[in-house]
C-alpha cells in the first residue's frame, strides 16, 4: 500500500487493507455459518455477531492509531489493573457454567482473563525490552517473567478456566522463547512438564480431568463428555470434500452437534462446506498469522518485535487449539474459534490483537 | 533499570545478536505454525476423505431412526371363519430400561398419569429387575386414548418411557379358548440373543408363548414393516422419509367350532375337566376345552406375580391343558375296546357270564360296581350295564396283549400329529410293557384291572375322544386342528371286523337309549340318538377296612381330591355318526351323573343351540354368572384372603399333600383288588 501513498491520504494508506479484508472475509464466512446454524435465520446469532464485528473492528482501527511508545507505556499499568480485576473476579465474580469468570460492572460484563491474554504479551515484551541484553542468559531474566506469568495463571486457573490459563502460559512462554532465553530451559521445561502432568491431573477439577481422559478415549463415554468430540468428528467427516451444502448440515440442524454455534462452529461449517471450506478457513487464518509474523520481523524495536510475534501467536493459539479440539486432536478445553464462533470475548481479543499489530506495523513503516 | 544507559556500548553488540536470534527463533516459530496448519489441514482431509464413508454412515444413523412396525399377527378363525384370536388397535406404554433415568420418579409419575394399580407397579418393577437393558418392559396396554395422550405429551420429561399405538391380541372368547390358542407375550431375552432380530425388542411386538400361538408362530407372525424417520438429537420427529409396509401374518383356520368350544367351556362350570369333540368324517377337532383356564387376554397383556400365584396355586390347575396333558385311568370307558378285543378273539357275543357282584381270583376278590351283581349278561348287556365281572371273565380268557392291541388301534397310548406344544400319551399296558418298566411278570390281576380301565391304564381326554371317533367311524381317524380344504375325508378302515364295530356301537347306544347306565344323558333332540359309555375311575386304593366299613369311597363324603374321576365317551347320531366326544371331569364322582350330562348338552348344542343355551343359562345362574364373572369373584376372594390374616386351616389342608392332587395318579394305586 505504501507504494500508492501519493494517491490516497496518508492515514488511510497506512491501514493494512489486505489483512482487514482477510479478517472481514473470515468473519463474513462465520456469519454465513451462524446463519445456517440458526436454521437459516439471522437471529439469534448472525445479526448480533455482525454488529459486534463491526464494532470491534472499529475499535481495532482506533487502536491502530496508538503509537508504539504509548503501548509500551501502558503495558505494566494494564497488567497491574488486570491482576487486581482478576482478584476481584475471584472475590465478587459472577459464577457461570461452574466457574467464576465475569465481573459484572452493571453496564458491562467484564472478563479480565480475556484481556490478560494480551496484557501478558505486552508486559513480557516490555520486560525483555528493558532487560539489558547481557542479562538474558541469567537468572534475572527468568524469575520476573515466571512471576508475571505465574500470577495470572494461578488466578485464572482457580476460576477455573483451563483453556485461558494455558493460553496465558503459552503466550508468555512464546515471548520468553523469542526473547532469546537459553533453549535448554524450554527443553528442560518440557521434560519437567511431562513429569508433572500426573500431578497436574490430580489437582484438576473433576470435569477438567474428565475432559482430558475422554479426549484420550472419547468412545469411553459416548453419551457424556465424549459425545462432543464424537459428534464433531462425525460432522466434519461426513462433510466430505465439498460438504453437504449450505443449510443442509444434519448434525448441526438436528442438534446432534453440541455447541454448534460456539466452540464447535468449525464442525458446523465443515459439515456444510466440506474439506474445501475447512482448508480455505485454515489458509485464511494462516495468512493472518503470517502477516503478523511479518510485522514482527519488520519491526525495528525489541518491544515491537516481541509484542508483534507474541500477539500473533495468541491468535495462532486460539485458532490452533480450537481446531485441534474439534478434530479430536486436543481435549475439549472450551476455546472458541475467533471471528467465527458466536460470542464477543474471542472476537474482541483477536481484533484488539490485530489493532495492536496494525499499530506496530505502522510504527515499523514510519520508522523506515 | 538505571543501569541501562551505562551498558549502552555493549548492548549494541548483543542487541544485534539478539535481533538475529529473534529472527531465527521467529522463523522456527513460523515454521511450527505452518506445520500445525498443515497438520490441521491433513487431519481434516483424513476425516473428510479417508474416513468420510464411516462418518457419513454415522451421521446417517444419527439422523435417521429406523423404527420397525411390528406386523399384525394373522387371525385365528374357526371352521366357519368366526374369529377366535384377532387384533385390536391399542395404545400402550413401555419402559426402555437403557434410557431410563431415575426409575422411581418415572414409575411414580406413570402411576399417577395412568392410574396404575399396586399390582401393575409390582409387575413393572419385577419386569425392570429381570429385563435386559434393551428389552422393553410393558407398563400398560389397551388403555384409553386420554391416558395414552397424557403420557405422550409428557414424553420429553419422561426419558425411557415409550408410548406407542399398535395392535394387541384379543381373544373374544377369553378363557374358553385359553388352552386351545395359548397366548402371546414379549419375546424373551434368549429369543433376541439367538437371532439379534431388532423386531424382538420393538415395543408391542409379541410372540406366541403357548398353545397354537406358539406352535404356529411362523405362520401367524407376518413380516415387520419399517419406518425411516428423521429425528433430532432430542428425539423430536422432523419428517418421515420412507416406510415399508408390514406384511400381515397368515390367517389360521381351525377345525374348531368357536360356538361349540365356548359352550363346552362354559358348560364345564366350576369343574376341573375337559371336553373334546371330534368330527368323525374328517377327524377335525370341533372343541378342545380345558377348564378352568387362564384368560389369554390378561396373559397377553402381561400378568402380575400375584395373578400368577393365584393360578398356579389353584388345585384345579388352570395352567394345564388337561385335554392333552391330563392323564386319567379311563375306567369303564375302555370297556367298548375290551369288548372289541373279546369279539376279535372269536368269542360269541351271545355267551353270557354270571355276575354275582364279585369275582374271585386266588385269594383276592374283585368287585363289580353293582354290589348285588347283574345276573346273567351277554356282551351287549355287559357294556350297557357296565358289568365288571363280564370283563374280568372275558379279559382273563383272551389275555392282556389282545386287549392292548385293540386299545392301541383305537388310539389309546398314542400321540397325534397336532400343532400343540406337548402331548402326554399315557399307558396301554401289556406283558412286554410291564417287563420293561417294572422288570416284573404280568399277573392275571393286572389283566382284570386293565379290562375295566384301571390299574396301569392311563389315557388323556383327546385319546378317549379319538377312540370314540374310531369306534363310530370304523376308520383310523387322526385328529387335526388346522382346517385345510386339501384334507380329504381321512382314515383307513380299522383292522377290525366292521360287524364287531357295529355290535359295539349298538351296545353303546343301549347304554344311553336302552336300559343302560346313562339313561339320563339321552339327547333332547328329536330323531337324534346318542351312543355313549360312562366311566368312573378310582383315584386311590380302597383298603379292605374301608370296603368293610361300606359307604362311599370316592363320592361326596371324601375330600375333593380323593373323589372318583367322572368320564364319558360318546358319539351321535347312532346311525352314520357325525360327532364323537369325550368328557372327563376330575373328581367328578360319577360318569353317568356328571360327565354324561355335560356330553349330552354339548352334543345338543350341535343340533339345537337354543335348547342347549337355555340349559346352560339356568345352570350359570345357579353357579353365579358366566366364566368371566366367576373368575373375577374368585380373584377378589383370593386377594381378600391374602390380605386378611390366615383363616383357620381348612379340613382338607390336614390331609397329607401328595400326588393324588394331580390328575395323574401313580399307576397301580388306583384299584387294589385284594380284599
Automatic annotation (TrEMBL), chain A:
Keywords for the protein's UniProt record, in alphabetical order: Cell inner membrane, Cell membrane, Cell shape, Cell wall biogenesis/degradation, Glycosyltransferase, Membrane, Peptidoglycan synthesis, Transferase, Transmembrane, Transmembrane helix
EC number per UniProt: 2.4.99.28
One GO BP: cell division
Subcellular location: Cell inner membrane; Membrane
Membrane topology: Multi-pass membrane protein
Pathway in which this enzyme or protein is active: Cell wall biogenesis; peptidoglycan biosynthesis
Any GO CC annotation of this UniProt entry: plasma membrane
Transmembrane segments: 20-38, 44-64, 76-95, 115-131, 138-156, 162-179, 186-205, 273-293, 305-327, 339-360
Substrates-to-products reaction catalysed: [GlcNAc-(1->4)-Mur2Ac(oyl-L-Ala-gamma-D-Glu-L-Lys-D-Ala-D-Ala)](n)-di-trans,octa-cis-undecaprenyl diphosphate + beta-D-GlcNAc-(1->4)-Mur2Ac(oyl-L-Ala-gamma-D-Glu-L-Lys-D-Ala-D-Ala)-di-trans,octa-cis-undecaprenyl diphosphate = [GlcNAc-(1->4)-Mur2Ac(oyl-L-Ala-gamma-D-Glu-L-Lys-D-Ala-D-Ala)](n+1)-di-trans,octa-cis-undecaprenyl diphosphate + di-trans,octa-cis-undecaprenyl diphosphate + H(+)
GO molecular function: lipid-linked peptidoglycan transporter activity; peptidoglycan glycosyltransferase activity
Keyword Chaperone tagged: no
Protein role: Peptidoglycan polymerase that is essential for cell wall elongation.
NCBIfam families tied to this protein: rodA_shape
Family: Belongs to the SEDS family. MrdB/RodA subfamily.
Name this protein carries in UniProt: Peptidoglycan glycosyltransferase MrdB
The organism's taxonomic lineage, starting at the top: Bacteria, Pseudomonadati, Pseudomonadota, Alphaproteobacteria, Sphingomonadales
Amino acid at each position: 500500500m505504501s507504494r500508492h501513498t501519493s494517491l490516497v491520504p496518508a492515514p488511510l494508506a497506512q491501514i493494512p487493507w489486505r489483512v482487514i479484508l482477510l479478517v472481514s472475509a473470515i468473519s463474513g464466512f462465520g456469519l454465513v455459518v451462524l446463519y445456517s446454524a440458526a436454521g437459516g435465520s439471522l437471529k439469534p446469532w448472525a445479526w448480533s455477531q455482525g454488529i459486534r464485528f463491526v464494532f470491534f473492528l472499529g475499535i481495532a482501527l482506533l487502536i491502530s492509531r496508538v503509537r508504539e511508545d504509548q503501548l509500551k507505556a501502558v503495558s505494566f499499568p494494564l497488567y497491574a489493573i488486570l491482576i487486581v480485576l482478576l482478584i476481584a473476579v475471584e472475590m465478587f465474580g459472577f459464577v457461570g457454567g461452574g466457574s467464576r469468570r465475569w465481573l459484572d460492572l452493571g453496564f458491562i460484563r467484564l472478563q479480565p482473563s480475556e484481556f490478560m491474554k494480551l496484557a501478558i504479551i505486552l508486559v513480557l515484551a516490555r520486560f525483555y525490552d528493558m532487560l539489558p541484553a547481557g542479562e538474558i542468559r541469567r537468572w534475572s531474566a527468568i524469575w520476573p517473567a515466571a512471576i508475571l506469568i505465574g500470577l495470572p495463571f494461578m488466578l485464572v486457573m482457580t476460576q477455573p478456566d483451563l483453556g485461558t490459563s494455558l493460553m496465558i502460559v503459552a503466550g508468555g512462554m512464546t515471548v520468553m522463547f523469542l526473547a532469546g532465553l537459553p533453549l535448554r530451559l524450554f527443553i528442560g521445561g518440557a521434560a519437567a512438564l511431562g513429569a508433572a502432568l500426573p500431578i497436574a491431573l490430580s489437582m484438576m477439577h473433576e470435569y477438567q480431568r474428565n475432559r482430558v481422559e475422554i479426549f484420550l478415549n472419547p468412545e469411553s463415554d459416548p453419551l457424556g463428555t465424549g459425545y462432543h468430540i464424537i459428534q464433531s468428528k462425525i460432522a466434519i467427516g461426513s462433510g466430505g470434500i465439498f460438504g453437504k451444502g449450505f443449510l443442509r448440515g444434519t448434525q448441526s440442524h438436528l442438534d446432534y452437534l453440541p455447541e454448534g454455534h460456539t466452540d464447535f462452529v468449525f464442525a458446523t461449517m465443515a459439515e456444510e462446506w466440506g474439506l474445501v471450506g475447512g482448508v480455505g478457513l485454515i489458509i485464511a487464518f494462516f495468512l493472518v498469522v503470517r502477516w503478523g509474523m511479518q510485522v514482527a520481523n519488520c519491526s525495528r524495536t525489541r518491544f515491537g518485535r516481541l509484542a508483534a510475534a507474541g500477539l500473533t501467536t495468541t491468535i495462532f493459539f486460539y485458532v490452533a487449539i480450537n481446531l485441534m479440539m474439534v478434530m479430536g486432536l486436543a481435549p475439549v478445553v472450551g476455546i472458541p474459534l475467533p471471528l467465527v464462533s458466536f460470542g464477543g470475548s474471542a472476537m474482541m481479543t483477536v481484533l484488539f490483537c490485530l489493532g495492536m499489530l496494525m499499530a506496530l506495523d505502522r510504527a515499523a513503516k514510519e520508522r523506515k | 533499570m538505571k543501569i541501562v544507559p551505562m551498558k549502552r556500548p555493549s548492548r549494541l553488540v548483543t542487541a544485534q545478536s539478539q535481533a538475529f536470534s529473534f529472527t531465527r527463533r521467529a522463523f522456527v516459530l513460523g515454521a511450527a505454525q505452518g506445520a500445525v496448519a498443515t497438520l490441521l489441514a491433513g487431519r481434516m482431509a483424513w476425516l473428510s476423505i479417508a474416513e468420510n464413508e464411516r462418518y457419513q454412515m454415522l451421521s446417517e444413523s444419527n439422523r435417521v431412526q429406523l423404527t420397525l412396525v411390528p406386523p399384525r399377527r394373522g387371525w385365528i378363525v374357526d371352521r366357519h371363519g368366526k374369529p377366535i384370536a384377532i387384533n385390536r388397535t391399542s395404545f400402550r406404554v413401555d419402559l426402555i430400561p437403557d434410557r431410563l433415568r431415575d426409575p422411581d420418579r418415572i414409575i411414580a409419575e406413570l402411576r399417577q398419569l395412568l392410574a396404575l394399580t399396586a399390582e401393575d407397579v409390582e409387575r413393572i418393577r419385577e419386569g425392570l429387575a429381570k429385563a435386559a437393558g434393551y428389552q422393553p418392559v410393558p407398563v400398560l396396554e389397551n388403555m384409553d386414548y386420554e391416558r395414552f395422550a397424557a403420557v405422550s405429551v409428557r414424553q420429553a420429561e419422561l426419558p425411557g418411557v415409550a408410548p406407542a399405538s399398535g395392535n394387541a391380541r384379543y381373544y373374544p372368547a377369553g378363557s374358553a379358548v385359553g388352552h386351545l390358542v395359548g397366548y402371546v407375550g414379549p419375546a424373551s431375552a434368549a429369543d433376541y440373543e439367538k437371532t439379534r432380530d431388532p423386531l424382538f425388542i420393538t415395543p408391542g411386538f409379541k410372540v406366541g408363548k403357548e398353545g397354537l400361538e406358539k406352535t404356529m408362530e411362523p405362520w401367524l407372525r407376518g413380516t415387520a414393516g419399517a419406518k425411516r424417520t428423521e429425528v433430532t438429537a432430542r428425539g423430536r420427529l422432523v419428517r418421515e422419509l420412507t416406510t415399508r409396509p408390514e406384511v400381515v401374518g397368515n390367517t389360521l383356520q381351525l377345525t374348531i367350532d368357536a360356538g361349540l368350544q365356548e359352550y363346552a367351556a362354559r358348560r364345564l362350570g366350576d369343574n376341573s375337566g375337559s371336553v373334546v369333540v371330534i368330527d368323525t368324517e374328517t377327524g377335525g377337532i370341533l372343541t378342545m376345552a380345558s377348564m378352568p383356564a387362564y384368560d389369554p387376554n390378561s396373559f397377553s397383556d402381561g400378568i402380575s406375580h400375584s395373578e400368577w400365584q393365584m393360578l398356579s396355586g389353584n388345585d384345579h390347575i388352570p395352567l394345564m391343558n388337561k385335554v392333552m396333558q391330563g392323564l386319567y385311568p379311563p375306567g369303564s370307558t375302555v370297556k367298548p375296546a375290551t369288548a372289541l378285543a373279546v369279539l376279535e378273539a372269536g368269542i360269541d357275543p351271545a355267551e353270557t357270564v354270571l355276575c354275582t357282584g364279585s369275582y374271585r381270583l386266588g385269594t383276592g376278590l374283585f368287585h363289580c360296581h353293582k354290589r348285588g351283581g347283574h345276573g346273567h349278561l351277554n356282551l351287549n348287556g355287559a357294556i350297557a350295564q357296565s358289568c365288571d365281572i363280564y370283563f374280568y371273565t372275558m379279559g382273563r380268557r383272551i389275555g392282556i396283549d389282545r386287549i392292548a392291541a385293540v386299545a392301541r388301534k383305537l388310539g389309546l397310548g398314542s400321540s397325534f400329529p397336532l400343532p400343540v406344544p406337548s402331548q402326554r400319551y399315557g399307558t396301554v399296558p401289556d406283558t412286554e410293557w410291564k417287563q420293561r418298566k417294572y422288570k416284573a411278570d404280568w399277573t392275571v390281576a393286572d389283566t382284570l384291572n386293565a379290562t375295566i380301565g384301571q390299574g396301569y391304564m392311563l389315557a388323556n381326554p383327546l385319546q378317549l375322544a379319538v377312540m370314540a371317533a374310531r369306534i363310530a367311524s370304523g376308520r383310523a381317524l387322526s385328529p387335526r386342528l388346522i382346517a385345510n380344504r386339501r384334507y380329504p375325508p381321512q382314515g383307513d378302515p380299522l383292522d377290525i371286523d366292521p360287524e364287531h364295530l357295529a355290535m359295539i356301537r349298538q351296545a353303546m347306544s343301549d347304554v344311553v337309549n336302552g336300559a343302560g347306565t346313562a339313561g339320563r344323558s339321552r339327547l333332547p333332540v328329536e330323531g337324534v340318538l346318542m351312543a355313549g359309555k360312562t366311566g368312573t375311575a378310582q383315584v386311590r386304593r380302597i383298603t379292605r377296612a374301608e370296603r368293610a366299613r361300606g359307604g362311599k369311597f370316592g363320592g361326596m363324603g371324601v375330600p375333593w381330591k380323593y373323589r372318583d374321576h367322572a368320564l364319558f365317551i360318546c358319539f351321535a347320531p347312532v346311525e352314520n355318526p357325525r360327532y364323537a366326544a369325550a368328557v372327563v371331569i376330575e373328581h367328578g364322582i360319577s360318569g353317568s351323573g356328571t360327565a354324561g350330562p355335560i356330553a349330552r348338552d354339548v352334543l345338543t348344542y350341535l343340533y339345537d343351540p337354543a335348547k342347549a343355551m337355555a340349559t346352560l343359562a339356568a345352570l350359570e345362574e345357579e353357579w353365579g354368572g358366566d366364566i368371566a364373572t366367576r373368575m373375577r369373584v374368585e380373584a377378589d376372594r383370593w386377594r381378600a384372603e391374602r390380605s386378611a390374616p390366615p383363616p383357620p386351616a381348612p379340613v382338607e389342608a390336614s390331609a397329607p399333600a401328595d400326588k393324588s392332587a394331580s390328575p395323574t395318579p401313580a399307576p397301580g394305586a388306583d384299584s387294589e383288588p385284594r380284599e
